[in-house]
Write a structure and sequence with these properties.
By secondary structure, the protein is an alpha+beta fold. Helices cover 19% and strands 23% of the residues. The chain is built from two helices and five strands, in the order E-E-H-H-E-E-E. It has a five-stranded antiparallel β-sheet with strand order 1-2-5-4-3, with helices on one face. A hairpin with a 3-residue loop joins strand 4 and strand 5 (95-99). The chain is globular.
Length: 104
């Protein structure tokens, strides 16, 4: 068990998948992103084609949005990157948006 337990829901628009990371929860932000990508792609989270390493350093991602040294949350900032054609946007407030590649 990996402790992944964010609230995840698909938005009304089928082209945009949304998930929320709980910075006080047991999962790292990079873990939440990987699970959200797997859910969006409809694959098992252990699928070897899901990797952040080719696009963004998972440890840097975790540090970028972690609470400040005094414990106050980071609410600003956005990072966008592409994983397997999926545009991933991570916001400082924990919101994760994934836009799948356009269907042809």
């Amino acid at each position: 068990m990996n402790g992944y337990a964010p609230s995840t829901s698909q938005s009304r628009s089928p082209s945009l998948y949304r998930a929320t990371h709980d910075p006080n929860g047991p999962a790292a932000l990079s873990t939440t992103v990987i699970h959200a990508l797997a859910d969006c792609m409809g694959v098992d989270v252990t699928d070897s084609r899901i990797s952040l390493y080719d696009t963004v350093d998972p440890d840097a991602l975790n540090e970028l949005f972690r609470p400040r040294h005094d414990g106050t949350p980071r609410t600003g900032g956005t990072l966008t990157f592409v994983v397997d054609g999926h545009h991933v946007t991570v916001r400082g407030d924990g919101e994760i948006q994934i836009e799948p590649p356009a269907r042809r």
